[in-house]
Amino acid sequence: MTTPLAIVAAVLAISLLIIIHEAGHHLAARAFGMRVERFSVGFGPVLLRTRRSGTEFALSALPFGGYVKIAGMAPGEDVPETDAGAFANHPAWRRFLVILAGPAMNYVAAIAIAAACLVSVGLPDGDPSARIGALTPGMPAEKAGLAPGDRIVSVDGTPVATWLELVGQLQRRPGRTFPLEIERGEGAAAQRLTIPITPVDQSGIGRVGFRQHQILARSTSLGALHEAFDRTNGNIALQLKGFGAMFSGAQKPDVTGPVGIGKDLVRSAHEGKPAFLSLVWTISVVLAILNLFPIPALDGGRLVFLAYEIVTRRRANAKLEGVVNLVGAVALFALILGVTLFKDILGR
């Protein structure tokens, strides 16, 4: 895939996942009789618009996601008690489900993406053997002449048979030069080579710059949905384990902003459809998880206030909720801006 096409694919993929999220809110609100005033695809100046069933559907100039505006949804908004279509006038459990529907749609979308991959291009799985995958440009693996598909036989004379053994041996040797014995090719044409390599030292851990080799998993159309469900739940468990390790301090935080995510999508698009769709699948999973975190300005933050109302049968103070969401939105924007500037762009 050419770079311009890869960039277009990356933008469309992220936008589609966000639109799917907002469609969850829209469909749930309409199902409960709430009035959806606008469903916008993109932000900024409106290019096209049409009105259906009381909702304005707009296509805006900046195609980065979109949003849904439901009448009476903003905390503290002045809503007449007689307005049956206003979000604020519906029972708390309905409002809870409308907010929950966004992350739920990302979860459903992830299952659908996984199932589609399993019956078509395949869903990449980590190869458990000591075989290397895509190389990181400019890192020692590329400089040493390693190639995707090479199988590492030994590291500094120590035999390795699995991916975990390989990673463990490399990480123990930061800044040291040592030989890698590799097998290149298959069957009778296979060659045994010895290549010297020097892992870079990243906080005391050796890094050489290659990812795990991938094998493509496929399924019949009858079993794909069930397998996609299991694989998506497994992906969720893996992501939650990673978040838990970061929050507990067991793992150094490795966050990526919008620019970094875009770069990863463009890179995966160059690698082929399976890699690209697999990353889109994972992003959909992460969107579902992150939006359920009890962070102000995200769906999870709203769900906390609604859960309080359901349990106590008392509405939270609207001004307090508005202030909390505003502060959360500012803090979240500052975090995204900081990560984008210092990590994605400057690489610090």
TrEMBL record:
Keyword tRNA-binding applies: no
Matching Gene3D superfamilies: 2.30.42.10
InterPro entries: PDZ, PDZ_6, PDZ_sf, Pept_M50_Zn, Peptidase_M50
Cofactor: Zn(2+)
Protein's membrane topology: Multi-pass membrane protein
Family assignment from sequence similarity: Belongs to the peptidase M50B family.
Protein name (database record): RIP metalloprotease RseP
Organism from which the protein derives: Anaeromyxobacter oryzae
